[in-house]
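Every protein is a chain of amino acids, and every chain bends into a shape of its own. The fold becomes a row of whole numbers, each drawn from a learned catalogue of backbone shapes. The protein below has been through that process, and both of its lines are reproduced in full.
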Amino acid sequence: MVVAAIKEVISQKILIFGANGMLGHALMEVFPDACLLGHHDVEITDEAAVRKVILQEQPFAVINAAAYTDVDGCEDNQDLADAVNGHAPGYLAAACSETGAILVHYSTDYIFDGSRIDYREDDAPNPISAYGRSKLLGERSIQKYTRNFRIIRTSWLFGHHGKNFVETILALSSQMPKVKVVNDQIGKPTYTVDLARKTPEIISREPGIYHITNDGTCSWYELACAVIPNAVPCSTAEFPRKAKRPNYSVLVNTKTRPLRHWKEAVSEYLWMKETMT
């Protein structure tokens, strides 16, 4: 039943916003016939333009992979963060409601404050950064304008065709003898390929909020150790950043089968990276 439902979803007309991004590239592989939209095609913060393209295309589902993901940058550009991450999803939701399309939107573990060890889909958010607040605003904007949504919260995303922690740590490892990495922030790394492959299943499920990550938890330091040989642990206090990060942001998936372990996903990512170079 699930396989048939997934095949049915993939055969439908799909619009992907943010197609040029890291997750967008992975989604292209899963939805090869989708209508792909980058910010040069449609500016997602332009409500009229968003409505026009959705009404024109009349899709079965709209997937929003567009986001302003510079966590520290959001502290300096809160208006931009709110426009892209907060208000724009509402524009998509309103147009989807008008046409009857399903809206799929990706959110983040950073809507939580890290005061608990882990978080279920129904736990109360309490963001501690501008980025987290903007993403929570996006969730609420969607829920205001449509009921036919699938909000997918994910965390610590890495993948090809984009800047991410794994790429950053590999670059630093080649430039310095030791790379300091914080060991007191705990979460779940997620491979864009696995998240994209899971998306058709989520579309076929009931409307609601879903936590989708690779299985297993780790610190940023433990993730770095799986990638480079010269990582050394440090505390968040030793490595201050402009935006506060939650100490614990483990997302618990209570609704679907878990994805493979993050270590397996990282190994595949590194192997794929070698074959691509």
User: Anything to note?
Assistant: Residues 5 and 92 are 24 Å apart (CA to CA). The radius of gyration is 18 Å. The chain has one domain: 2-164+188-215+250-256. The first strand starts at residue 14 and ends at 17.
